[in-house]
Amino acid sequence: MTARSAAFAGFIQTLKALDAILDKAAAQAAERKIDPAVLLSSRLSPDMLPFTRQIQLACDFAKNAAARVSGAENPKFPDEETTVAELKARIAKVLAFVANTDDAALDAGLAKDVTFPRGPSATVTMKGETYLTRFAVPNFYFHATTAYAILRENGIQIGKSDFLHGVLDA
After folding, report:
1. How far apart, in whole angstroms, are the C-alpha atoms of residue 65 and residue 44?
2. Does residue 94 lie in a domain region?
3. What CATH number is associated with residue 34?
4. What InterPro entries does the record point to (predicted)?
């Protein structure tokens, strides 16, 4: 099994699902005359991050994993999205980056040390495989699932098949 098939295929599938879910949310918000900004600022709990930040972080965990494991230059995407269209554009940039990351470099990076920031003044180092499987992948799915749950909590009619976008079509 390769890094691409083990983790990055799931990132790509789920980012595409989030993109499609954003379309459904925007359409349903328009039908129900809900300001999309209300959905984008919604959170599951007062101490949790809002929907927009959940999408940004899901994107960041996929992008950062691809860059850190492969050793590629990590593109910087400022967290400035305020609309559905801007969130979709961020997802598209991350999809393009992840899809174009070199497979051989990803596989080789699993055995190498990966160092990443932990807060503003500390770093953590672990093997690429551990970073990918025990840190990046769980964090990615946490934020993707939380974004999905925020929309459901706000009455957007999406279901499990939307989250599993395309997996049953293959």
Report:
1. 26
2. yes
3. 1.20.120.450
4. DinB/YfiT-like, DUF1993
Question: Residue 106, exposed/middle/buried by CB under 10 A (0-12, 13-18, 19+)?
Answer: buried
Share of the chain above pLDDT 90, in %: 89
Instruction: Report residue 115 as tokens.
Output: 């160092």
Domain range enclosing 118: 3-164
Which amino acid is located at 57 in the chain? L
Cα(24)–Cα(161) distance, rounded to whole angstroms?
A: 13
pLDDT digits (tens, 9 = 90+) for 108-147: 999 999 999 998 999 999 999 999 999 999 999 999 999 9
Which tokens in the block code for residue 9?
């295929």
Q: Given CA atoms 11, 17, 20, 24 in this order, what sign does their dihedral have? A: negative
Top pLDDT among 168 and 64 is at 64
